[in-house]
Design goal:
By secondary structure, the protein is α/β, with parallel strands linked by helices. It folds into two domains: 54 residues, no CATH class; 120 residues, Ribonuclease Z/Hydroxyacylglutathione hydrolase-like (Metallo-beta-lactamase, Chain A), CATH 3.60.15. The protein starts with 6 loop residues before the first helix and ends with a helix.
C-alpha cells in the first residue's frame, strides 16, 4: 500500500513485486510526474551527508507506481482479514490513502505525523483539517502515523485542532501565533497562495 507518492513511502515498491501495489490514482500519477525529481533531491541530500551507499541505493531504485488504483474505497480480503482502503480527501498531499484493518487499526500515512510538525510542502492546508475529521471518525483503535509512534483518535483530533490553528494564524497574517515553528508556518502560508 502506498499512502502517498513521497519517496519514503513508495520507492521500495519494486522490492515487493510481483505483489500488487495499491495506491490512489493520484498517487500513481504523482509518482510518475515527480519521482525522478524526488530521487535527484534525495540522492543529493544523502551524498551531502556522506552516505554514498544509501545514495547509490536510491539512485538505482526502480520507480514503480501502484498498479491497483483506488478512487474512493476498495475492500480487500487479506488472508481472511478485511482491509479497507479509503481516499478521505486531500491533506498532506492530493492523494492520501488510508488503510483500515477490521480490528480498528488505521494506517494513516502522513495525514498524521507524530514527533514533528506536519509537512506542508505538497499539502492542501485548507482541506487537511476536514480530512483529519473524517479520519478521526474512523479511528476506533490504534492509528499508525506516517512517522513517529503509534497514536489514537485523541491525537488525531488534537492534530486537527493544531491544523485549524495554523490555518487561522496564516489567514490572520500572524505566523508567530501558529502552533508550529516559523519555517513550518511559512511553508503552510506559501501553500495557500
Amino acid at each position: 500500500m502506498n499512502t502517498h507518492a513521497h519517496y519514503d513511502h513508495c520507492f521500495g515498491n519494486a522490492a515487493f513485486r510481483p505483489a500488487t501495489v495499491w495506491g490512489t490514482r493520484g498517487c500513481a500519477a504523482a509518482l510518475r510526474a515527480t519521482g525522478e525529481a524526488q530521487r535527484a533531491a534525495r540522492v543529493a541530500e544523502l551524498r551531502a551527508a556522506g552516505d554514498d551507499d544509501a545514495a547509490e541505493q536510491v539512485r538505482r531504485a526502480p520507480l514503480d507506481p501502484p498498479d491497483a488504483l483506488v478512487d474512493d474505497v476498495a475492500v480487500l480480503d487479506v488472508g481472511g482479514v478485511e482491509v479497507v482502503l479509503r481516499f478521505l480527501g486531500r491533506g498532506h498531499t492530493g492523494h492520501d490513502l488510508v488503510v483500515e484493518v477490521e480490528d480498528g487499526t488505521v494506517f494513516a500515512g502522513d495525514l498524521v505525523e507524530e514527533g514533528a510538525p506536519p509537512a506542508f510542502d505538497d499539502a492542501f492546508p485548507t482541506e487537511w483539517p476536514a480530512t483529519l475529521g473524517r479520519l478521526h471518525a474512523l479511528a476506533r483503535g490504534a492509528v499508525v502515523p506516517g512517522h513517529g509512534a503509534v497514536v489514537d483518535a485523541d491525537f488525531v483530533g488534537a492534530q486537527r485542532e493544531e491544523l485549524l490553528a495554523a490555518l487561522a494564524a496564516v489567514r490572520a497574517g500572524d505566523l508567530h501565533r501558529g502552533p508550529y515553528d516559523a519555517a513550518t508556518m511559512r511553508v503552510a502560508a506559501a501553500r495557500l497562495r
